Amino acid sequence: MGRSGSQTLSRRALFSGKHGAPIRPPWTSETSILDACIGCGDCVAACPEDILFNGPANTPVVSFENGECTFCEACAKACKESVFDLDQPAWTIQAVISDSCILQSGISCRLCTDNCEVEALVFDLSQRPVGAVFVDQDLCNGCGACVAACTFSAISIMEPQRD
Ligand code: SF4
Ligand code: SF4
Ligand code: SF4
After folding, report:
1. By residue range, what is the domain housing residue 55?
2. Which residues form the 4Fe-4S ferredoxin-type domain (predicted)?
3. Whose Cα sits closest to atom 7 in ligand 2?
């Protein structure tokens, strides 16, 4: 089960969203957190995957460095305030692959594709010499499972650029 929420992470881990903004829990927004979160830490303690942490003013932030979101809703159900809205999509963030992907250096790797349950990481063998990985934006749900899988830190979860 989740832990106390007193755990701390590096600044990089906590502020890895778009433009360095923190990634907030599913079914929340920066606005709903600023408006309604009282910093009680109940959602952080409730997360069975231990991906929620206390961020600025004790408000919850997500880090995928050690785990993924299973969309279990435990965080939303633990919150007694009006921060979470389960009637909305969980979030719009998705995986983005950077130039650090070692395929771009001609070295074979499939660590991330094997970890994506919904098969949103598409391996394109036609790219020379060792292929390339692309994110299928119609499939990626932003769960973050691929982040820890990539030992080269080439994957971030953020608001993607739409094609
Ligand atoms: S939905 Fe579940 S796994 Fe995802 S952040 Fe909330 S408690 Fe954690
Ligand atoms: S695990 Fe990382 S380095 Fe390997 S293919 Fe995926 S993104 Fe590239
Ligand atoms: S964030 Fe989840 S769904 Fe998206 S590519 Fe990574 S593992 Fe697949």
Report:
1. 11-78
2. 27-57, 60-89, 131-160
3. 101
Residue ending a domain, among 43, 78, 113, is 78
How many whole angstroms from 125 Cα to the centroid of ligand 2?
A: 14
pLDDT digits (tens, 9 = 90+) for 114-133: 999 999 999 999 988 999 99
CB-ligand 3 contact for 146 (6 Å cutoff): yes
C-beta 140 within 6 A of ligand 3: yes
Segments of the chain with pLDDT less than 50 = 1-6, 12, 18
**Ligand 1 atom nearest 47 alpha carbon:** 7
Q: Residue 26 is part of a domain; what is its CATH number?
A: 3.30.70.20
Please give the pLDDT value at position 162.
67
Neighbours of 129 (CB within 10 A): 8
Give CA separation, 22 vs 75, 108, 141, 148, 155, in Å.
Answer: 17, 32, 18, 18, 16
